[in-house]
Amino acid sequence: MVNANKTKLTKDINQTTLVTFSNILIISQRLEVFSRSLTLIAFFVGLIAGWCLNSIFLTNCSLMIFLSGLFSQYYALRIAFDKKLFDYLATKHDQLPKVLNELDDALLQLNLIKSKQQPLRSIEDRQKGTLKLFKKQIVLISIQLILSIATVIWGISI
User: Fold this and answer.
1) CB-CB contact of 44 with 66 (8 Å)
2) Which pTM was predicted?
3) Which residues contact 109 (CB under 8 A, 6 or more apart)?
4) How far apart are CA 87 and CA 96, in angstroms?
5) CA pair distance 148, 61, nearest whole angstrom
6) Are 144 and 38 in contact (CB under 8 A)?
7) Which positions ≥6 away from 27 have C-beta within 8 Å?
8) H or E stretch covering 143
9) CA-based Rg of the chain, rounded to a whole angstrom?
10) Rounded CA gap, 153 and 158, in Å?
């Protein structure tokens, strides 16, 4: 029974699949740089708007952009961590069931997961979880960008 579960965990997974998925996550790093730029601009615009211009609207918009950026940075860090793990798994693809078990043990010891899930999560489940984080990051960056554009348009029209 254990061997059947191990086979399910590694079914249709090869090194190329893991490397390809890991390389998709590089997009998150590029988005993180863009988000960080918007976050820093919003921070300084908010300071200037609050201190010099006394603009409550600009200050509030900058605060919302800044907070969206902070949450986006959190997701970027989690995705970067997952990317490193997938890079490692790609180097150990021939021993995947054993490595996944060791990975879960290490994450449990570091209190990065609450409890060891039984049965072991498959690579596909792990990839789906990382993609959910990636989608959340994209939504937050989209919110940042929309708020930034709206703030500029509103500021020009005043």
Assistant:
1) no
2) 0.84
3) none
4) 12
5) 8
6) yes
7) 134
8) helix 123-157
9) 21
10) 9
Cα 125 from chain centroid?
Answer: 16
Paired tokens of 81: 């961590």
Handedness of CA 105, 109, 114, 115 (dihedral sign): positive
Chain centre to alpha carbon of residue 86: 14
Query: Per-residue confidence of the chain (158 residues) as pLDDT tens digits?
Result: 444 454 455 556 788 888 999 999 999 999 999 999 999 999 998 888 878 877 788 888 999 999 999 999 999 999 999 999 999 999 988 888 889 889 888 988 998 888 776 667 888 999 999 999 999 999 999 999 999 999 888 877 76
Q: Is 74 left (phi over 0), alpha (psi -120 to 50) or beta?
A: alpha
Count CB neighbours of 107 within 10 A: 14
* Selection from 76, 78, 81, 89 nearest residue 20 by Cα: 89
* Owner of token pair 């060891």: 116
